[in-house]
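Thread: Newbie trying to understand structure tokens

Hi all, I'm a second-year student working on a class project, and my supervisor (Dr. K.) asked me to get a predicted structure for one chain before our next meeting. I've only ever worked with sequences, so writing a 3D structure as a token string is new to me. If someone could post the tokens and maybe explain what I'm looking at, I'd be very grateful. Here's the chain:
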Amino acid sequence: MGTGECANRFNGLAILVKHAFENMSHSYNKIWIHAIWATKERMPLIHANVENKIHQFIASQLSELGCSVSIINGMPDHLHCLFLLSPQKSIAEVMKQIKGSSSHFINQQNLVADKFAWQTGYAAYSVSASVVEKVVEYIRNQKTHHQKKTFSQEYDEFLIAYGLDKHH
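---
Reply by user tm_fold:
Sure, no problem. This is what the structure looks like when written as tokens:
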């Protein structure tokens, strides 16, 4: 390809990009979020007999917030959730609403023996569309996965993988 031909292709691409932005009257986003949060003091309170009810409630709350849920699963002391973030919401807003409403629901429905609460923090990671299915499988297989690894080990590995420092 000669210099002139390359310049023509570049100019053609520039015109297409310019045209796309001039005619872009809508906002588009598709941001997958893998959120992880734990029970207060990591108490193993979410037992098999109530976990589906809790997961369904959280899914309905996410849906009301405009966040499409792919999967929710976890262990007695923590949950994983993969969802599409609503363009109108921040991750902080979503997590505050989900954790608050679900702890209220769990207590109101007496789903656990003790007073239920989530830990203050959470982890939330963006997930590339190319690995969504891997994350779905990872979340689906939580029970098997945690036969080999504790939540603490898993959480520390996530922090390292995403270049985060748990002390800040």
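A couple of things are worth pointing out once you decode it. The chain has a mean pLDDT of 85. DSSP finds six helices and four strands in the chain. Feel free to ask follow-ups in this thread.
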